[in-house]
Amino acid sequence: MDRKVTLAHGDGGELAHKLIQQIFVSAFGNQSESRFDATFLSLSSGKIAVTTDSFVVNPLFFPGGDIGKIAVSGTINDLSVAGAVPYCLTVGFIIEEGFPLADLRKVVKSLAVEAEKAGVQVVAGDTKVVEKGGADGLYINTTGIGLQREESTIDPSRIASGDAVLISGPIGDHGIAILAARGELGLMTDLESDCAPLNHMIDAVILGGVDVKMMRDPTRGGVATTLVELAEDFDAIIELEEEKLPIRDQVRGASDLLGFDPLYLANEGKVLFIVSESDRQKTLELLHQFPEGRDAAVIGRVTGKGVGQLLLETPLGSKRRLHRLSGMMLPRIC
């Protein structure tokens, strides 16, 4: 096989066949299904959840992950925080002419490894090759299918005054790791992206009997934007305590240097939980059992219902209102 992707790899002929068989089918399996234009799924009764996402992260490879890993993580986490058990994925690749086949193989392998960790299969896919300059190396689109949990208590209409707000770990890691990997501002750090599929950790919380009223993954726009949207959508007043926000020194230092607010930096391996106050400690204990949740913390509480808003209490005791991210902080983050 050639060393780079050519337009002939996308014409449906012999090179396209070899590309699919030697790189995609060999990584994802499903040898028999690959002979057909559709895959049949056997689903149990009940509701299914469907989500779709596209990934255009720059650079394609970064500390802690790559576009393949983040594609799986983002899709699996979207299903999980909605209260679904991830079942399978479809994956579409848009590849620029001249893209190194060795890099494509690495991305596909990474995607397959993360899917296996999450316990889901890649059941269908597609490849398209575009002319040089028609894409920035590689774009990936995914669709995830999940099954509704019978055990899930997720119902944001039940959010009430006194509920606890938790985050599964330090915020802003992904945003700063990506920025450093771009090398545009001379930022030096050993920080890695937090991107990871979190369905097993979320399983433990829900199956542990926690009364979870809402979950969200604070990706683009960060923790602040995610909680503002949640507060406004469900008429909740949420107050965060600035001193309780888990932020690594590297993230805090880089943010101070560049004028960023860590509350608005992207995360790809964190979950926000709103749970009953009586389940606050149990939730922490369950999260702390997982590497992705060992630094989980309670960061705030729901203080009322009415006009939805997010407030931040400073160490001095004053409060200020937080709003959605305005403008473009870090493009091409996922």
From TrEMBL:
Q: Domain named PurM-like C-terminal: which ranges?
A: 161-309
- Please name the CDD domains in this protein's record: HypE (cd02197)
Which SUPFAM superfamilies does UniProt cross-reference here? PurM C-terminal domain-like, PurM N-terminal domain-like
Q: Which Gene3D superfamilies match?
A: PurM-like C-terminal domain, PurM-like, N-terminal domain
Q: Which residues form the PurM-like N-terminal domain?
A: 37-147
Q: Which Pfam families match?
A: AIRS, AIRS_C
Family per UniProt? Belongs to the HypE family.
Entry protein name: Hydrogenase
According to its UniProt entry, this protein's organism is: Sporolactobacillus laevolacticus DSM 442
